[in-house]
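not sure who needs this but someone in the group chat was asking about Serine/threonine protein phosphatase 2A regulatory subunit from Olea europaea subsp. europaea so here u go. i didnt clean anything up, its just raw.
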Amino acid sequence: MWKQILSKLPRKSAKLDADSARTPNSGINMSSPGSGRPNAASPAVKRAAIFPASPIAGIEPLLAFKDVPSSEKMNLFISKLSLCCVVFDFTDPVKNTQEKELKRATLLELLDFVSQNSTKFSEPAVLAACKMCSINLFRDFPPSYRSSNTNLGENDNDSEPTFDPAWSHLQIVYDFFLKFVTSPSLEAKVAKKYINHSFITRTIDLFHSEDPRERDCLKAILHRIYGKFMVHRPFVRKSMSHVFYRFVFETEKHNGIAELLEIFGSVITGFALPLKEEHKIFLWRALIPLHKPKSLGVYFQQLSYCVTQFIEKEPKLAGGVIKGLLKYWPITNSQKEVMFLGELEEILEAINMADFQKVMVPLFWRIGQCISSYHFQVAERALFLWNNDQVINLIAHNRHVILPIVLPALESNAQNHWNQAVLNLTLNVKKMFSEMDDALVLACISSYNEEQEKLNFEVKKRKEAWELLENAASRQPIAGNTAVLVTP
């Protein structure tokens, strides 16, 4: 049946396909309308379910690789790739079932061939492979993601992911392309012509997919592209940066931020020292502002890893990172505050004394605010900092500055906090300070008590002043339409 279908294909189409394989420098139009994955309403789906490709150089695409001599296997490879350049409608499970199964079997053959092939891929073969992958994978999302219905909020971890109905084919295409990119038989100097900037941009765009399986495959592929094509590395970093900028400053809508950050975490480990200015700019302009969106919890683990990797590479960056965190501190979001405090602890483990002293006053003022928070998780996480030996060491060496800042919060907790766990932690921290420098603690407590007496006196004076005003007002007659409200 399939031989009959293939024999009916136009000879002109066959000639064009063969010519394109013989002239690889013609390139691939990745942005052509036919190269996207169609949806149910796409005109491409309504076309006749036949394969718009024919055998190349006399090789029948339905033959098995084992049935042709080695000299013809690359031509058969190209022919089978052409056979897979049609995209089916998977929203209707009973439509084109035989054609879908034939394509799936052919994709599996191609995957097996790429896994076992030991000869160099020819340039026409590289062109055909990139063309097949682009036709099957690349499709358009809403313009600049602005009209997307996906908005990663604080509770999106609990939402159900969306799965692509075409995954039975897409997964094999992704596996094929991963094997193809990582194959020793693929020469980077040849493949870079077709896995070019346009191809990389469309690949990064796919990270907006709502299917987590697809994003996971893309993560592996983009990571391998970055590793194999050194010439494209600056462009990959720049393109990822643009995604982050758009997400933070324009849309706050993107599904693949966590996966892109995971890739960048691996990239940072390979940065040479001293760090280039380009890399530091990425830290200040992309990573630090990524703490701002309300969907931080979705990608916080990957973001925190990237930030700490930068500090491990160059510890003197720690002070600037702390200033950035203080700038974007989530005053009204308790869950994010807990995350920030956890990241601060990791940064403080790597900071040197000189850089710590530059930021310790605003830092511990903010920590003091967290200690006295009525949200018990925030207060608890802030007090847990005193369980870290490195943090205690930093505090001990600078206790004359830090203790006067945080002691009012500790005293307030000890007298008024409603949560027993926070109260116990507060008393433990006070005890730790007393063991560290009892005389300083007593002096700070005395100063705190004096300040509280002054505040209480001011409150009393203000209350008395209002009472005098109210009494005076109550004795005045009401004139005209003027009414005086006197509180009881």
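also The CA atoms of residues 104 and 169 lie 6 Å apart. if thats useful
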